Amino acid sequence: MVSEGRGQRAEGRGQRAEGRGQRMEDRSLSTSYSSKYSVYLIGNRKQPLEYCCMENTKNDLKKAVVGLLEKYAVEVQQQWDLAEEMPCEDSEGCAFVLVPAWRVRDICPNSTKVVPLFAWRKQRRFVELKKIVENRTITPVLMARFACLAAGDSLSLSNILYREFDLLEWITGQSISRMYATSAPRAMNAVVRLDDGSIASIEVATTLPSGTPIEDRHELIARRGMASDRVVDTQCRQESIYVWLKDRRASFTDVDNELYGLDEEQVALVRSAYDALSDTESHQQLRRRHEYLTSLVDAAMQSDRDRRRVVMKGASVA
Description:
- By secondary structure, the chain is an alpha+beta fold.
- The chain has a domain at 2-55.
- It has helices spanning 2-26, 58-71, 104-107, 124-134, 157-172, 264-278, 283-306, and strands spanning 29-34, 37-44, 47-55, 80-82, 96-100, 114-117, 139-151, 176-184, 187-194, 199-208, 215-224, 226-228, 241-244, 249-252, 310-311.
- The strands form four sheets. It has a seven-stranded mixed beta sheet. A three-stranded antiparallel beta sheet has the order 1-2-3.
- The longest helix is centred in the N-terminal third of the chain and has 25 residues, at 2-26.
């Protein structure tokens, strides 16, 4: 009797497993984890399983922004567009165009309807660093060490410096008062002093291979403790899932509980676009901040050309 009961239970498990297998067989396309690319698992009984990657496009990001606006019942009266990597001519007829702040010079250098987005301020690691400073978890901050490397076909040294200058002032709550910068082919180092007397070293480079994601690290050193946006002793960012494809390796990490299928930078861009659309009165302030940061980048380039220190005037941390 016991043996017969076990056999019936085993038969039941087999039938359930067969049912699950049939459902998986009928499903020819199922979404999985995603990042810059949306990943799909394709296959059935006659075709081996394999992964294919479909790159997220500008329209996907705009749809994500629209989804947030609809979810939280935010009405935007004027026509708008999101320009991540395209000429502003494609956005004719819009009242304003949302552009990643560090790409404004590349995409829309002379447009008066551009709204620069400081998307990196939405990334969790930078938000937490700012909280550590504001809550005086480490205090006083004496030195900052920032480093950022990117592929030269996607960003320039000026782009990266722009981002790092904004992060430095936004995280520390201090303005850059003077700087000295020097460069080599595809690399630059800037040593700056902030209003409170602390110093910072900023290293940027465009030496990574084409298609490589940004590798960066931001450290704060204080009299009492230190903080970093990367796990201690790691040389590069860690991902949740790694997939080995036929010709390369892909990695995926979902970082937002509402915006699935976007990588960290894309989530931050969508969030900052949503904020800008929710508060159109902030657009002028964002433009002023952009002009100020542009002047900082120009000062760094001037320091490199003249081989001398530059003293800043009219610093702002808005």
